[in-house]
Amino acid sequence: MKAKTFAHGIHPPELKNLTENKAIQPMPPPDKVMIPLLQHFGKPAASLVQKGDEVLMGQKIGEGQGLFSASVHSSVSGKVLSVDPFNHPGGTPVPAVTIANNGEDNAVPDKKKMKDPFSFSPDEIREKVKEAGVVGLGGAAFPTVVKLSPPKDKPIDTVIINGCECEPLLTSDYRLMLEFPEDILKGAELARIATGAERIIVGIEDNKKKAFALFQEKIQDYTGDVVLLKTKYPEGAEKNLIQATLHREVPRGGLPFDVGIVVQNVGTAKAIWDAVSNGKPLIERAITVSGRSIAEPQNLLVRIGTPFQSVIEFCGGLKDGNILVMGGPMMGIAQWSPDVPVIKGTSGILAWDSPEPGIEQPCIRCGRCIEHCPMVLVPTQLAKYIKFDKLEEAEHWGILDCVECGSCQYICPSKIPLVHWMRLGKNRVMSVKQKKSA
Amino acid sequence: MTDKPFILQSSPHFRDKDSVPKIMFAVIASLVPAVCASLYFFRFRALLLLLTCVVACLATEAIFLWLRKKPLHPLLDGSAIITGLLLALTLPPSLSLEMAVIGSVIAIAIGKQVFGGLGYNIFNPALVGRAFLQTAFPVAMTTWIPPVAEKINTATYATPLGDLKFQDAVAQGILAPLKALFLGNTGGSLGETSALALIIGGLFLLFRRVIDWRIPLGIILSLTVFTGIFWISNPGKYASPLFHILAGGLLLGAFFMATDMVTSPITPRGTWIYATGIGIVVGLVRLFGGFPEGVMYSILFMNTFVPLLNRYTRPRILGERRKE
């Protein structure tokens, strides 16, 4: 079978061998969890608890505000110590609920006996997913209920399950696919029902042949298919995944809805199943703890709110290492301290010794950034427009289409911080637009 | 736990190992066959000219960096060495060393540093130097000596393209044989005579993905079509496309000069237009112009269009509607 792929992209070192054969281990919950009220794309949740309250495991402690928001739940049982701004792996402190774990994991009692999950209506599925605070677990943490609510005028035909995990080092999605294939497919089926789609397509990169074979077997019980994709970065970027699997192009500025598609990450699919089948809120997630500076790299099931420090210590601590990243090496966020909590969007905690960044040289216009940009942009030109504040040109040349995948900066022989300029440019262009519309 | 703070940087945190100096030294390596060919055919003259140009280019670069109060590390990036090598390879073997020095100074000073150094120049620096020499010393720049391998004892000697232009070589039947052009056993500039050596170096650059394959392909294709039309219509008067590809500086230009990243377009469509333009202008000059050879002027001419081409050939962004 020939692997499908998209145009352009890069081949960074994969380095997945550190953890790919290690099963997901549950990590014991720490003594104290710090659960930020903003762990998703959108508005922060409103706190439902105060200092001194006793909370149960799975109890809702933050209520999502509006559509683009998500509720948060306690990942342990115990006493609320504070509701104050706390370090956040996103960079800026965010109000967080700190809970002292009483070690008993007293869960919220089941309200009633669940009926067959597949008999739920689309609205019921959405309600349960929303109630459980499920967000996209691939990294962007977009509220899942939004993705399960296509507008009436945009019929959906396919749910794509993203099993690419194209970021180097990360293996937790791979392990989920090997260990919970049924849950993932059941979650995908629920997403299919919720969106009114006809079929499920699971996209898996060809460096995960075992998962591919397993899913080919399991998919038989569903209406759908498994597609083998080339191991290339960013194969799992939503728009490129759609391009690779179905040869459809999401229009500029549009969403997968516009071409009849909904994409869910494998971890999210499992979370949908957990939420709908037994009402389990999103209070833990699978993460990869890896990199050359982690003593014992592992795949872990970690409670939301666990400090990075505890996770790293559980993995034998740090040996040297001058960089600590949440997420993958290509799109992850560098951390200044391990004193930040695991959030819903934490796909990995990585540490290694990063070589000194080389001296930035002038652009020699080699065109490699253009040759590798998965969105077919001209990064070097965009960077120049932003440097000289030519925002209209930058917009025309597609600055807002940039997905910040980092392919351009990875490949740039002049070591120009292109993604930095893209981010700055996107911000500037957006703020000018907002001013105009205001 | 370590005591030193973690690095804070914006993603991506992985970087490819290729760098500007690595690219430049790959280009230098690719010129080795052509340099060897020039040493074989023109011996000591070639060695002197090559050394003179490289040293003069490096010295000019150093002086200008110092005058501009810039750090001196760009000296090590290899780009000035390339300019020196390329300039030398375009010079007639008999050119005096003073003239070679003047050409080198102009190449780096006017061709590169006044624009702001590496990455900012509009024209290929080596060709700027050569164009200056051509204008300042027209006789010296068009006086040719036979390659050492050829046992001819004549004071003056012509290039195959010179014969074609001024001696009506096709009709007279004195056109240089293709085999000589391929191996390099003809008159001409230091590095342009051996098509074989240039092709080896060019293939290396293509394989190493340093140069854009569209440029040599576009130039060769458009020149083939252009000269082919005339050749088919009157083979008794016009030379074949293969002759035009192998003769003169076409391959040197197509693989090593037109492909200069800084002075060629960055967009794929712009690159096609640029390469096609070079091929056609070369054909126009060779067939109808006053000079026997037009590679240098055609590249410099198309260099001027590069900013414009970049501006108007933005690639179609993923998801952008195709123009109907």
Description:
- The complex is a heterodimer of chains A (438) and B (324).
- Chain A is of the alpha/beta class and 438 residues long.
- Among the domains of chain A are: 115-278, NADH-ubiquinone oxidoreductase 51kDa subunit (Rossmann fold), CATH 3.40.50; 368-437, no CATH class.
- Chain A has helices spanning 122-131, 144-147, 172-179, 181-195, 209-218, 238-246, 266-278, 308-314, 368-372, 379-387, 391-396, 407-411, 418-437, and strands at 25-26, 32-36, 46-47, 54-55, 60-63, 72-73, 78-86, 94-101, 158-163, 199-205, 224-229, 261-265, 284-290, 298-303, 323-326, 333-335, 348-352.
- The radius of gyration of chain A is 21 Å and the shape is globular.
- The model of chain B has no long low-confidence stretch (mean pLDDT 91).
- Chain B has 324 residues and is mainly α.
- At the A-B interface, helix 6, strand 15, strand 16, helix 12 and helix 13 of A face helix 1 of B.
Strand content of chain A: 15-25%
DSSP strand (E) fraction of chain B?
under 5%
Supply the number of helical segments of chain A. Answer: 13
Radius of gyration of chain B: 21 Å
Instruction: Give the class-level CATH name of one domain in chain A.
Output: Alpha Beta
What's the number of helices of chain B? 15
Give a short account of the largest sheet of chain B: none
Structural class of chain A: alpha/beta
CATH topology of one domain in chain A: Rossmann fold
SSE arrangement:
The complex is a heterodimer of chains A (438) and B (324).
Chain A: E1 25-26, E2 32-36, E3 46-47, E4 54-55, E5 60-63, E6 72-73, E7 78-86, E8 94-101, H1 122-131, H2 144-147, E9 158-163, H3 172-179, H4 181-195, E10 199-205, H5 209-218, E11 224-229, H6 238-246, E12 261-265, H7 266-278, E13 284-290, E14 298-303, H8 308-314, E15 323-326, E16 333-335, E17 348-352, H9 368-372, H10 379-387, H11 391-396, H12 407-411, H13 418-437
Parallel strand pairs in A: 1-14, 9-10, 9-12, 10-11, 13-17
Antiparallel strand pairs in A: 2-8, 3-5, 4-7, 5-6, 7-8, 13-14, 15-16, 15-17
Helix pairs in contact in A: 1-4, 1-7, 4-7, 10-13
Chain B: H1 20-30, H2 32-67, H3 79-89, H4 97-109, H5 125-136, H6 160-166, H7 169-172, H8 178-183, H9 195-207, H10 214-233, H11 241-246, H12 250-257, H13 268-288, H14 295-303, H15 306-312
Helix pairs in contact in B: 1-3, 1-9, 2-3, 2-4, 2-9, 3-4, 3-5, 4-5, 5-14, 9-12, 10-12, 10-13, 13-14, 13-15
